[in-house]
Amino acid sequence: MFKSGVGFLALFGLGWWLLGTSAFGGAARLVAVAAGGAAAIGLMLAARRILSAVAEDPFTPERRRRFYQINGVQWVLIAAVVMGCGRAGAPVLIAPLIALVVGLHFLPLAAVFEQSRLRVQAVLLIAVGAAGLVIWLADGPDQAVRLVVGLAAGLCLWGTAAWTITGTAAAERALTQ
Questions:
Q1: Per-residue pLDDT at 60
Q2: What HEC string does 31-87 produce?
Q3: CB distance 13 to 47 below 8 Å
Q4: pLDDT (mean) for 113-117
Q5: Are 163 and 117 contacting, i.e. CB atoms less than 8 angstroms apart?
């Protein structure tokens, strides 16, 4: 499940979803949080049930090195975004800028893992980050920025997780026929 990336996509999708639900209040937020938790758990259970336990480990030594390099750069950029936005007094920009950074990090990962679905993920997350910036530039409320960026990024990650499950399952079925 985590080898295929589904667990990471599901959990990070939940994190983004929780950010988006922070725009809600009361019972609406509780329902949205519960729905997000159910989605993440459902994806992980589906991956565990559907994906082969003996799936090929995508981490050859070279891929592992590149993966760590790409993710290391991503986390340094995220830290810089958080510190820069904090110092600039613009915490509302943290989520859209992080969405851009995360989206950009999927581009080299798509090449490393030879997974075109990660390019789609990259474009979607970059668009989500850009949408958050547009809302902010249009003097939209901080709550709208969190809502759009959080919910859309969560849905993007969960969509890629579902795509991974269905795509891998279909490939495994084709190999056994």
A1: 84
A2: HHHHHHHHHHHHHHHHHHHHCCCCCCCCCCHHHHHHHHHHHHHHHHHHHHHHHHHHH
A3: no
A4: 88
A5: yes
Q: How far is CA 107 from the centre of its chain?
A: 13
**From CA 114, how far away is CA 123, in angstroms rounded?**
16
pTM of the model: 0.90
Kindly report the average pLDDT of the chain as a whole number: 91
Q: Can you give the pLDDT at residue 172?
A: 61
Quote the CA–CA distance of 162 and 160 in Å, as a whole number. Answer: 5
76 vs 137: CA distance, rounded Å: 25
Tokens linked to 35: 């729905």
DSSP at 91:
G
Query: How much is the pLDDT for 169?
Result: 65
DSSP string, 139-174: T--HHHHHHHHHHHHHHHHHHHHHHHHHHHHHHHHH
